[in-house]
Known about the structure:
Elements: H1 3-22, E1 29-35, E2 41-48, E3 51-58, E4 63-68, E5 74-81, E6 87-95, E7 100-109, E8 112-120
Parallel strand pairs: 1-7
Antiparallel strand pairs: 1-4, 2-3, 2-5, 5-6, 7-8
Amino acid sequence: MPQTRKRAFSLSVIAxxxxxxAGCHSKYIExxxxxxxxxxxxxxxxxxxxxxxxxxxxxxxxxxxYRFKLQGSGPVKITFSDSALTEHHQTGPVLNEGQxxxxxIIFPTADKAxxxxxxxx
Length: 121
């Protein structure tokens, strides 16, 4: 292959690389759980379509971050215990497979979770 042809081929491969990498974007949800209550929470578990995640404890003022990919559709559910070890359950927003964005779960008090999402297909 002549030198100018090799150079042109190399430049076309380099030019196509960003387009190839842009097509490899994996959709995920960036989740954050934040405890704004005055007491620690324990056994905080978030169930989302097809899986779950959580943390053993969440101190006042602390946050827990987790990133996940949606496999299926359905509601987000959270289970947690307050400082008196009373177990609480709440159902949050419905998430759909293929969405990406953020999920915020905030505890204003030790017995209540508030959900906020910013997702798009």
